[in-house]
């Protein structure tokens, strides 16, 4: 009787794995083809609408023209210094926010009195649009690098901080009971149970911070900067270099996309034990 | 001889602000001998989980004391392994890593030894080949096997089980009950098993403590002495007349009767 019970679960797991594989194969064509078709549709519209005269090609040059301009900018060395400056700002700000946000979040979540003290302040700040504070940052820190990186740190800090706090707070009480039943001390409990349980939530915060870092970077660079992609786009628009402007925007999109893909992969890796 | 577990005058009240305290346990006395399999049966809300929590050291009682081999319980300890109803496995650890955790906390084993002992214990609960699965890749029955392996691997003197099979389907449950009996016989561990199922109580227990609610107390303790032939291979133990008699007896006790009425 017990032998039968031992083999049955194994068989179920195998069948479901096989079914899963088949279903995945059936879905794969749709999973790859449809998104590609979506992008192709967008590019086609971008190309054809200006060419057909339905949209003024002065304000929206066809995609091929923008792509050609982008290639020129990329090869003549105009684009890369701006990309470099922008990446340094956003990645730097993002890194500082993560390095500060995680330990701070862990600390706040671990001490109830600290949470009570800081909760209203945190609520107030996170509900204040970061960009509304940009003039304040410029006023205090000047128009240079410091104010730009600071506003990025500031706006990236909240998703990291809040997700870390909720990640620690929402740890299943059953895990704590289980940990206590194994006679774990507070420190061991934190290291072996609370922290690993909070990791997926923390990585969600990190991913959100990544998106925020690019968003705020561009806005900050559009307000008084002499280099960077935000400056480049704004400047191109001032000088009526419309294809250059779109080339800059395209660059920003691709960088944002790549950053997000990398962070999602990281998040998946650290949550792989989840369903 | 000192009993393995001694519960003396245990009373526990839950206090919440602005309400009269709820009495979960009222003057519970109980002694469990070394190597004994004791089942505590009772309706939900009779305080049986609270009793187990106090023995586990997870709850400090309002009054009274629990002693293990004569030593008062001051908190949780690795001399008592616990299996919860909802498995309580750590999902970021594989089956083997979950089992190894008990050994990590117990200390005194090298990494290699921990791996070996965990594998052996998983083998004993019939989970060969599933060492590297994460809990979400296992069925309910398999998860509970891992939990049992985790609570036994470091060789505790006592195994505490809080309705461990309640969330499983009937067939899986019966299989696990049979395996638990076997594991208990092989390991010689003292087991305290909480359930609301009368069948489960008669099947597993050497003695069955019947609890009644409001306030939670032990109303009767019944010896279950099923003859050897009901345990023979190929015999449906649960349909034996002796089994039915015990079940009826405990049923009557749970529904407010006395042992005398049944015997008459």
TrEMBL record, chain A:
<dbReference type="InterPro" id="IPR035906">
    <property type="entry name" value="MetI-like_sf"/>
</dbReference>
<keyword id="KW-0812">Transmembrane</keyword>
<feature type="domain" description="ABC transmembrane type-1">
    <location>
        <begin position="83"/>
        <end position="267"/>
    </location>
</feature>
<feature type="transmembrane region" description="Helical">
    <location>
        <begin position="124"/>
        <end position="143"/>
    </location>
</feature>
<comment type="similarity">
    <text>Belongs to the binding-protein-dependent transport system permease family.</text>
</comment>
<protein>
    <submittedName>
        <fullName>ABC transporter permease</fullName>
    </submittedName>
</protein>
<feature type="transmembrane region" description="Helical">
    <location>
        <begin position="32"/>
        <end position="49"/>
    </location>
</feature>
<feature type="transmembrane region" description="Helical">
    <location>
        <begin position="245"/>
        <end position="266"/>
    </location>
</feature>
<feature type="transmembrane region" description="Helical">
    <location>
        <begin position="91"/>
        <end position="112"/>
    </location>
</feature>
<feature type="region of interest" description="Disordered">
    <location>
        <begin position="1"/>
        <end position="21"/>
    </location>
</feature>
<dbReference type="Pfam" id="PF00528">
    <property type="entry name" value="BPD_transp_1"/>
</dbReference>
<keyword id="KW-1133">Transmembrane helix</keyword>
<keyword id="KW-1003">Cell membrane</keyword>
<keyword id="KW-0813">Transport</keyword>
<feature type="transmembrane region" description="Helical">
    <location>
        <begin position="214"/>
        <end position="233"/>
    </location>
</feature>
<dbReference type="InterPro" id="IPR000515">
    <property type="entry name" value="MetI-like"/>
</dbReference>
<feature type="transmembrane region" description="Helical">
    <location>
        <begin position="149"/>
        <end position="168"/>
    </location>
</feature>
<keyword id="KW-0472">Membrane</keyword>
From TrEMBL, chain B:
<dbReference type="InterPro" id="IPR003439">
    <property type="entry name" value="ABC_transporter-like_ATP-bd"/>
</dbReference>
<dbReference type="InterPro" id="IPR017871">
    <property type="entry name" value="ABC_transporter-like_CS"/>
</dbReference>
<keyword id="KW-0547">Nucleotide-binding</keyword>
<dbReference type="InterPro" id="IPR003593">
    <property type="entry name" value="AAA+_ATPase"/>
</dbReference>
<keyword id="KW-0067">ATP-binding</keyword>
<dbReference type="InterPro" id="IPR027417">
    <property type="entry name" value="P-loop_NTPase"/>
</dbReference>
<dbReference type="GO" id="GO:0005524">
    <property type="term" value="F:ATP binding"/>
</dbReference>
<dbReference type="Pfam" id="PF00005">
    <property type="entry name" value="ABC_tran"/>
</dbReference>
<dbReference type="InterPro" id="IPR050166">
    <property type="entry name" value="ABC_transporter_ATP-bind"/>
</dbReference>
<feature type="domain" description="ABC transporter">
    <location>
        <begin position="5"/>
        <end position="234"/>
    </location>
</feature>
<keyword id="KW-0813">Transport</keyword>
<protein>
    <submittedName>
        <fullName>ABC transporter ATP-binding protein</fullName>
    </submittedName>
</protein>
